[in-house]
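Quick one: C-alpha coordinates for this chain, please?
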Amino acid sequence: MKKKTFFPALFFLSWIFALVSCASSPKFHGNGDFCGMVVDEKNQPVSEYLITCSKAGGGLCMGSTLTNQSGIFVIQNLSAGKYSLEGHKNNYTELRNLKVDFCFRDKFLCCSVLSADGLFERVNSLIKTGDFDGAKKQLELLCFQRGSQVSQVALCYEAFLYALRKDRRGLQSCLKRIRKTKLAELCKFADEVEELLNGKNTEEK
Protein backbone atom coordinates (compact mmCIF):
# COMPACT_ATOMS: atom_id res chain seq x y z
CA MET A 1 0.00 0.00 0.00
CA LYS A 2 2.84 2.40 0.83
CA LYS A 3 4.48 1.91 -2.57
CA LYS A 4 1.23 2.61 -4.40
CA THR A 5 0.79 5.93 -2.61
CA PHE A 6 4.47 6.93 -2.57
CA PHE A 7 5.25 6.65 -6.29
CA PRO A 8 2.18 8.57 -7.56
CA ALA A 9 3.00 11.30 -5.03
CA LEU A 10 6.62 11.37 -6.22
CA PHE A 11 5.46 11.58 -9.84
CA PHE A 12 3.11 14.46 -8.96
CA LEU A 13 5.89 16.40 -7.19
CA SER A 14 8.20 15.88 -10.18
CA TRP A 15 5.51 17.21 -12.50
CA ILE A 16 5.02 20.30 -10.30
CA PHE A 17 8.80 20.87 -10.23
CA ALA A 18 9.00 20.66 -14.02
CA LEU A 19 6.12 23.09 -14.38
CA VAL A 20 7.72 25.63 -12.03
CA SER A 21 11.06 25.24 -13.77
CA CYS A 22 9.43 25.92 -17.11
CA ALA A 23 7.68 29.02 -15.77
CA SER A 24 10.96 30.37 -14.42
CA SER A 25 13.03 29.39 -17.46
CA PRO A 26 15.98 31.63 -18.35
CA LYS A 27 15.69 34.45 -20.86
CA PHE A 28 15.16 33.32 -24.41
CA HIS A 29 17.66 33.89 -27.21
CA GLY A 30 16.70 35.01 -30.68
CA ASN A 31 13.73 37.01 -31.85
CA GLY A 32 10.05 37.25 -30.94
CA ASP A 33 7.01 39.50 -31.20
CA PHE A 34 6.73 41.98 -28.35
CA CYS A 35 3.07 42.68 -27.53
CA GLY A 36 1.40 45.27 -25.36
CA MET A 37 -1.73 47.29 -24.76
CA VAL A 38 -2.46 50.96 -24.09
CA VAL A 39 -5.37 51.89 -21.80
CA ASP A 40 -6.63 55.16 -20.33
CA GLU A 41 -7.53 56.09 -16.73
CA LYS A 42 -10.82 54.19 -17.07
CA ASN A 43 -9.05 51.06 -18.37
CA GLN A 44 -10.52 51.69 -21.80
CA PRO A 45 -8.33 50.76 -24.81
CA VAL A 46 -6.69 53.64 -26.67
CA SER A 47 -6.59 53.10 -30.42
CA GLU A 48 -4.15 54.70 -32.89
CA TYR A 49 -1.64 55.47 -30.14
CA LEU A 50 1.84 55.57 -31.72
CA ILE A 51 4.39 53.36 -29.95
CA THR A 52 8.11 53.60 -30.75
CA CYS A 53 10.60 51.03 -29.46
CA SER A 54 14.30 51.88 -29.13
CA LYS A 55 17.38 50.14 -27.79
CA ALA A 56 17.91 51.10 -24.16
CA GLY A 57 20.74 53.58 -23.86
CA GLY A 58 21.63 53.53 -27.54
CA GLY A 59 18.65 55.35 -29.00
CA LEU A 60 18.51 53.06 -32.07
CA CYS A 61 14.88 52.77 -33.19
CA MET A 62 13.77 49.15 -33.49
CA GLY A 63 10.28 49.83 -34.83
CA SER A 64 7.10 51.87 -34.53
CA THR A 65 3.46 50.86 -34.66
CA LEU A 66 -0.06 52.08 -33.92
CA THR A 67 -2.39 50.38 -31.46
CA ASN A 68 -5.47 48.76 -32.97
CA GLN A 69 -9.12 49.26 -31.94
CA SER A 70 -8.48 47.07 -28.88
CA GLY A 71 -5.50 49.18 -27.84
CA ILE A 72 -3.05 46.39 -28.69
CA PHE A 73 0.32 46.92 -30.37
CA VAL A 74 2.89 44.43 -31.68
CA ILE A 75 6.58 45.09 -32.39
CA GLN A 76 7.49 42.20 -34.65
CA ASN A 77 10.72 40.23 -34.81
CA LEU A 78 12.32 41.90 -31.79
CA SER A 79 15.43 40.32 -30.30
CA ALA A 80 15.63 39.64 -26.58
CA GLY A 81 17.03 42.54 -24.61
CA LYS A 82 16.36 45.83 -22.88
CA TYR A 83 14.40 48.57 -24.62
CA SER A 84 12.82 51.96 -24.11
CA LEU A 85 9.27 52.76 -25.23
CA GLU A 86 7.94 56.17 -26.25
CA GLY A 87 4.38 56.91 -27.27
CA HIS A 88 1.96 59.68 -28.07
CA LYS A 89 -1.46 60.60 -29.42
CA ASN A 90 -3.26 63.93 -29.45
CA ASN A 91 -5.47 64.50 -26.39
CA TYR A 92 -3.59 61.87 -24.37
CA THR A 93 -0.47 61.95 -22.22
CA GLU A 94 2.86 60.82 -23.62
CA LEU A 95 4.81 57.71 -22.72
CA ARG A 96 8.37 58.77 -22.04
CA ASN A 97 11.36 56.48 -21.68
CA LEU A 98 9.40 53.47 -20.40
CA LYS A 99 12.00 50.80 -19.59
CA VAL A 100 11.22 47.27 -20.81
CA ASP A 101 13.17 44.04 -20.40
CA PHE A 102 11.96 41.75 -23.20
CA CYS A 103 13.04 38.38 -21.87
CA PHE A 104 10.03 36.12 -22.56
CA ARG A 105 8.29 35.73 -25.91
CA ASP A 106 4.88 35.62 -24.23
CA LYS A 107 5.43 38.84 -22.23
CA PHE A 108 2.50 41.26 -22.52
CA LEU A 109 2.93 44.84 -21.35
CA CYS A 110 0.03 47.06 -20.25
CA CYS A 111 0.72 50.81 -20.57
CA SER A 112 -1.54 53.29 -18.78
CA VAL A 113 -2.00 56.84 -20.09
CA LEU A 114 -4.40 59.66 -19.30
CA SER A 115 -6.97 61.22 -21.60
CA ALA A 116 -7.16 65.03 -21.62
CA ASP A 117 -10.11 64.91 -19.21
CA GLY A 118 -8.27 62.52 -16.90
CA LEU A 119 -5.17 64.69 -17.03
CA PHE A 120 -7.08 67.86 -16.12
CA GLU A 121 -8.72 66.03 -13.20
CA ARG A 122 -5.30 64.98 -11.93
CA VAL A 123 -3.95 68.51 -12.32
CA ASN A 124 -6.92 69.83 -10.31
CA SER A 125 -6.22 67.30 -7.55
CA LEU A 126 -2.54 68.28 -7.40
CA ILE A 127 -3.43 71.98 -7.27
CA LYS A 128 -5.79 71.34 -4.33
CA THR A 129 -2.97 69.66 -2.41
CA GLY A 130 -0.59 72.53 -3.21
CA ASP A 131 1.67 70.45 -5.46
CA PHE A 132 2.02 73.09 -8.19
CA ASP A 133 5.29 71.69 -9.55
CA GLY A 134 3.74 68.24 -9.85
CA ALA A 135 0.72 69.69 -11.64
CA LYS A 136 3.00 71.49 -14.12
CA LYS A 137 4.97 68.29 -14.85
CA GLN A 138 1.74 66.40 -15.49
CA LEU A 139 0.50 69.14 -17.81
CA GLU A 140 3.70 68.91 -19.85
CA LEU A 141 2.90 65.28 -20.71
CA LEU A 142 -0.29 66.16 -22.60
CA CYS A 143 -0.20 65.97 -26.41
CA PHE A 144 -2.56 68.18 -28.39
CA GLN A 145 -3.04 69.83 -31.74
CA ARG A 146 -2.18 73.52 -31.83
CA GLY A 147 -5.31 75.66 -31.80
CA SER A 148 -7.56 72.87 -30.55
CA GLN A 149 -9.91 73.28 -27.59
CA VAL A 150 -7.70 70.98 -25.51
CA SER A 151 -4.69 73.20 -26.24
CA GLN A 152 -6.66 76.25 -25.09
CA VAL A 153 -7.65 74.61 -21.81
CA ALA A 154 -4.05 73.48 -21.25
CA LEU A 155 -2.85 77.03 -21.86
CA CYS A 156 -5.26 78.39 -19.25
CA TYR A 157 -4.07 75.81 -16.73
CA GLU A 158 -0.48 76.77 -17.50
CA ALA A 159 -1.22 80.44 -16.83
CA PHE A 160 -3.07 79.57 -13.63
CA LEU A 161 -0.12 77.52 -12.38
CA TYR A 162 2.33 80.35 -13.13
CA ALA A 163 0.08 82.67 -11.12
CA LEU A 164 -0.11 80.23 -8.18
CA ARG A 165 3.67 79.87 -8.20
CA LYS A 166 4.00 83.69 -8.47
CA ASP A 167 6.19 83.32 -11.53
CA ARG A 168 5.51 86.69 -13.17
CA ARG A 169 7.91 86.17 -16.05
CA GLY A 170 6.41 82.82 -17.00
CA LEU A 171 2.89 84.18 -16.52
CA GLN A 172 3.44 87.20 -18.77
CA SER A 173 4.78 84.97 -21.53
CA CYS A 174 1.82 82.61 -21.16
CA LEU A 175 -0.74 85.46 -21.12
CA LYS A 176 0.84 86.82 -24.28
CA ARG A 177 0.24 83.49 -26.02
CA ILE A 178 -3.34 83.44 -24.74
CA ARG A 179 -4.07 86.90 -26.13
CA LYS A 180 -2.62 85.89 -29.49
CA THR A 181 -5.52 83.46 -29.90
CA LYS A 182 -7.80 86.55 -30.13
CA LEU A 183 -10.58 84.51 -28.54
CA ALA A 184 -12.79 86.75 -26.37
CA GLU A 185 -13.23 84.24 -23.52
CA LEU A 186 -9.51 83.47 -23.34
CA CYS A 187 -8.53 87.14 -23.45
CA LYS A 188 -10.99 87.84 -20.64
CA PHE A 189 -9.44 84.99 -18.63
CA ALA A 190 -5.96 86.47 -19.20
CA ASP A 191 -7.12 89.87 -17.93
CA GLU A 192 -8.70 88.34 -14.82
CA VAL A 193 -5.59 86.32 -13.97
CA GLU A 194 -3.35 89.36 -14.39
CA GLU A 195 -5.66 91.51 -12.27
CA LEU A 196 -5.74 88.83 -9.58
CA LEU A 197 -1.96 88.62 -9.44
CA ASN A 198 -1.54 92.41 -9.44
CA GLY A 199 -4.09 92.67 -6.65
CA LYS A 200 -2.17 90.16 -4.51
CA ASN A 201 1.09 91.97 -5.12
CA THR A 202 -0.50 95.29 -4.04
CA GLU A 203 -1.79 93.71 -0.81
CA GLU A 204 1.63 92.26 -0.03
CA LYS A 205 3.25 95.69 -0.44
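DSSP finds six helices and seven strands in the chain.
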